[in-house]
Records
---
Amino acid sequence: MARAGLLDHRKFKKLVYLLREPVPHCLGYLECLWTVAYQARSAFIGDFLDIGLATQFPGEPEKICNALAAAGFIDKRPDGDFEVHDLAEHAPRHVQLAMKRRPMSAHQSFSERPMSAHRASIDHEEKRREEKNKEPPLPPFFEIIPESLKSSPEFVQLWTDWNTHCREKKSKVTKTAATKQLAKLAEWGLSRALAAVKHSTANGWTGIFEPKPNGTDESNHVCRVPSDQKVADWTPT
């Protein structure tokens, strides 16, 4: 199957110009050629006559062969035969996998070559650039964090850390529970909210507790939704 954008590609336009045939005809010749290569799991096609048979071109084989070579869709090998240009790089995924599994022989070594180092380098650089430009994910429930807490980068980071901790302990924090927790923390004020979230994460709790003033492990219960209790039945203490 042709890749998106083929009809506007300069190589395809050159092929249409050289053959002086309608666009659907030229597209059909390419599809027939690629289908033969896909089914054989090899870019190798053969001589002029083989190219004509593969493309099902109704005219002289030399004409379609010369046009495909001039446009860059096939390459001429040192032995005079032809192969599909860069089939291993542009074939569908299942064909690429099949080509890798197929044992290589001396006859296949010209066509079944691995991706070039240049192309691999380009792909790596594009992937690195995409990762660099990717927007960092928003903190959990960022849209419902009260402004009095959201304005504090420290709170946002502590809130994110606590949510990550809950996720690691397989304790899911629902949006309903988070809304109640954040409302209660906002009511406590920023300083007490920071202390409560930090204290709860440090102690490995999936609920949020305010530390006792005397520094003992016993804490005031700020807000928590036990895993075995429905949110609808929960009320903060």
---
Amino acid sequence: MRLKTIIFLFIGFGFLLLHFTSCNTFNNTEVKQFDAKGTFAELDHLLIQLHQIDVSDCTNLDEAVSINEKMRGIIEDVRSQKEFDGLVNVFDADKYKISFLVSQDKQFGVFSWTTKMDCLGHHIKNIALYKSNNEIKTSSLYGNPLVYIKITTVELNNKSVYLLSGKESVDKKPSVTKGYTISNGDLVESQIPFPKQSSNEYADSITRY
């Protein structure tokens, strides 16, 4: 009789333990749900803080570096295609201060912002997110950072090439176009010819997502 009681107690304890474990797993899943709008709101909040920093005479650089690192961490923490798609679906260029350009095929996107770290030689930050092998990868873009304002997708040798058009500062006219493609899971700079346009034609063709 005593043995049966002990067995029933163990079984009951096991059910309770399983119940609490399931609840904790469910709660953790809820906590970890990705909030695309919250992500943009957080990036905008940090960007506002960044722009309020006085970096004249190269002061307060530690604070500027810290905020830029937080922004970089938030973007690089986007790990799944579902999270990336969430960002694409909620982004509104008229609502958010951070720049986020997305290719027409929604496989490639670029975040850009001014860092206020001119004294360190880093005026603009560009971080690309792209889909590869059912996951999202991140990459800082090669070469001189630019303020990107347009992405055009062209097909070359059965591969999508993303042409990023940008300028060296917010008050300059677009002057530079760079090509990138995804090869073996990596983002690779692609040097390809593309038609040149006059500055007026170029300006008329600019679109933003």
---
Amino acid sequence: MIIFYTLGQLQKKLNKSFYNTKNLYDVFTTFAGSKKFQEARAKKCLDLINNRELYLAEVGPGDGIHTELYLRYILENGDFERIVLDAYDFSKRNLKRFKKRVKNLGIEINLFLTDLSIARPFLERKYYVITFHEMLDDLPASACVLEDSTYELLFDQELNVQSKKQCKRTIPKELCGYYIVFNDLAWYHVFESRKFLRENGYVELSDYGFTYESIDVPKELWNLNAVREIEGHITVDLNFSQFKELSQRLNADAELWHQKEFAEEMLGKKLWFYSEDKLDYYTTEEINRDKKLRKLFSQGIIEHDNYWYAIIYRNDEH
């Protein structure tokens, strides 16, 4: 008997074992190691939080490179008497690796093993900044398609679409035939986390994703990559149109940027990005000074990447 699975069922079945044996940043190339992006995040924190103590939550901290860069800037430019960092992850292995990287920064560090594949609150206290690091797209989601009606896709274990069932989703008619992912559980955790914010605090996230307006490839190519299996791990893009719709419905004070544009705004510099072996941002001056970079960028400049940065504030005024 052949068993068909929803996307979420397959992700829940396979991704937990991936995190217990491998590290996300060993397999995927991300902007986690971008010093400019982490400095932009840190500047945002220093602009908004003026207390003597800083309580931070890192959800999906990976190998800690982004946290190290972020905290070094805060320690060098801030004036906090005490910094407490709580890290949450699926994997005990990842948490140990994370702590090894940041343990010498002179802050208080606490580790929490948690299962985010369940829709329940998981944070242990209230924070000024709650950060979700490129792991929301690994949480159980659903994949749907608009045809004569709207259907949820059903897969076999090799991620081939085998069947579909009718569902209640809204997909723009201009995206008829496109596989569209809905990240219900991911957005549940993001918006639920607002309840754990201290005064002037905020939830932030950075991840690979899309909006309906940003889809600009033929549906055959889009559908081929909408759900991806890499080394036994199933990942998708985050639906930031769904994020915007939920923000409005919940009356949340939220902002959304292309990640590069957020870094440009916070750093006050025009940036360009390169996305082959290492994802990072560069100023025009850096490109002109480096022969290798000049050669790479001479092959063409891409104005926007598909990485996004979102922030949800606790208060209506910020």
---
Amino acid sequence: MKKVKNLLIAVLFLIISITTVNAKNDIFELGWGKDLITDGSILEVGYSKKIQYKDGYVVSNITSFSEDADTKITYYNNNGDVVKEKILSDKNIISIKEYKGNIYAVSSWVMSGADSDVYLTANIEQEWELLKLNEDLEIIETAKYVFYDSELFFVPFLVNNIGIDYISTVDDKITVLGAHGGTLALNHFDVDLKNQEEKMLSFTEENVKEVAKYYPIVSEYLKLMEENDGNAPQKISILSETKNNLKVYNGADLSKCGMFNYEIDANDPCYINSTMKLTSDNNVVFEKNYEDYILLIDAKIIGNHIVAIGVKNVGDIINLITEIGNEEEKIDINSLLKTEVVVLNMAGEIVQTINDEDSLYLGITPSSEGFAVNKLAIDLSVFEDTKVEDILLERPTNYSVEIYNLKVEEPSIPEVPENPETKDIALIGVGIALLLGLGLTLFNYKKINSLR
């Protein structure tokens, strides 16, 4: 009877240990965060940038767009400690990029006493700067180029925040966008910011190919336009990142939007759902729609995950535009300004989201241990009586850089109880169970043979 009891105890422990094994679980957890105060608008915070650099991150933080403008450049290691910090006086750094161990930065025009209204509305010839910095954050080379058109002033902000590097390093050149009036220009420099070459751009096939060479996202979209006889395609899929043999594409399903779909009435509602596609050696691994998001942008392959910024779906775009145009209609700004970090597995399933009710997330920067993201905090109360078009010019914002590290919870098996007697009983019981099973097998085998 005692042996039977011991056997039952052993079997019980065996069952418990098998059924309570925890599956491996990968999650991104906040490693460290740094608050960065910007005495400026959402626009200015949008220009604040971060890049992975050596054993950490470099962050540029514009303090204000003004006559006394300056930018703080900070180099953090992966533990969040400050390695170097510099104030670049009279510099509005709107984009930074690492290339061959150096940092390249674009500094936009500083007003130099000009009235801010003139600054935003007049076509004043502006000299922008391209800077080269070393690991001590010292400026070692500078070059100037023309950016002459106030209407195009927002271009760098827009390209920064849909995940495109404003600075291109194709063909061992440092390339930036400039402008003369309404005409864009490519400005090429060598790695020492010498041998400047400016090429004016118009909408010719040759110019389009030239731009696409340095900014591939342009060619992806134009290719889709060509395939649809110049019309907007029902599904947009644009390459976001290439890593080894993998390619991840951001996109949107426009098939339920009258503005883009020529088969339905243009006055019908417009619903846009985000899409994402992953290919391996150009074979589709997954292609899925995500109705909770109007866009998944700036997608990056990080380990065995895809991390992107999810812009929450706002429903019918036509209805939203109508509400914004109606001066008597109160717009809930909270419902418009919603983004979160979205983590997907390599099958396209969302496994984690990172969000904050009162914050915007902008820009994913990968690292060896996870990723960094900008978290923009907005005091929405100041917008209660503010026109939507004036929001970008308000000054209530600050942001932080947050680092998320990958935490892996390994499979765990509960320890056998440390009481020696109980432990021995369990081990002996398992042995008895194995011997009993073997004995029964042999007995039945002999019995079957004797019957034959």
